[in-house]
């Protein structure tokens, strides 16, 4: 079928809305009519080259929610009309990682940037000229239709707003799990959240719900610091340097047992700064993405050893998407997890570049594309 999508044809150029062709679902695949797509910083990394896809053109988008329109051969977990969230990391349930309880490291993840469908290693999306299109994490939610492997979809309750559900494909479980799973925040611990955009605000809520004593939100944007306090932060600062003395005074210089780094782009030169506010035997969780070509890190190795600190990477917040996405949405329905107020503004697909400008300028926590008939 013919539809349209937000395409990148080269680095450091704006998103362009183009006509694309979406193929039919093959074995173990489903076709979805998209209703909402989250605008995550990771898709901006496609534009800068921080996340390198296997080729161009690229169809962006890896957060989204919609309705199943068609199912392929062998699909048993979904029916036409089901509401689903797209999980940016698939969960096959069969590989060693899935069986070991780390579904966020599913073996299908090795194929996410290649563009070829995991079912048969062919392309489901083509340009109007017939050239293959590389969808972000085999999804491409910046299009009103998509065909995905069933391992990339999670069935959800039909009474959940699509714009809320969309954020649970990446930002909410990534942030919340960075605190509760990868960070293992315990009641009474002091926690710092570095960067309070979409992922950081979810991490902040995770720390609060886990029972953190003090939550220090650190972000250079004044408006985001104001929002962080509304979401439960006890203190807010523009930088680690500004926060250092207050964190020391409040914690009697024990510093933070957990430091969760959710900045838009991680630079290796900042790692030791984040470790400086991490307590003895504490953990600094790196959730934000750095450039894949960057291997330089500033870190005092002696203090890492002598103070027995931990530096922990985290992908998808350590989440099991098939389990955690429905659970987080249940918390939303019970009023225990505030997702709606994280959605600062909704955009049309044609406004995608405006939305990313707002993100980069710190004018939103999370922007969401809401699809209409005009997009289809």
UniProtKB/TrEMBL annotation:
Residues 198-330 form the Alcohol dehydrogenase-like C-terminal domain. Pfam families: ADH_N, ADH_zinc_N. It catalyses: a secondary alcohol + NAD(+) = a ketone + NADH + H(+); a primary alcohol + NAD(+) = an aldehyde + NADH + H(+). Keywords: Metal-binding, NAD, Oxidoreductase, Zinc. Its cofactor is Zn(2+). The keyword Oxidoreductase applies. Its EC number is 1.1.1.1. It comes from the Bacteria. It is an enzyme of class 1 (oxidoreductase). Residues 27-157 form the Alcohol dehydrogenase-like N-terminal domain. InterPro entries: ADH-like_C, ADH-like_N, ADH_Zn_actinomycetes, ADH_Zn_CS, GroES-like_sf, NAD(P)-bd_dom_sf. Transmembrane segments: none annotated. Belongs to the zinc-containing alcohol dehydrogenase family. NCBIfam families: Rxyl_3153. This is alcohol dehydrogenase.
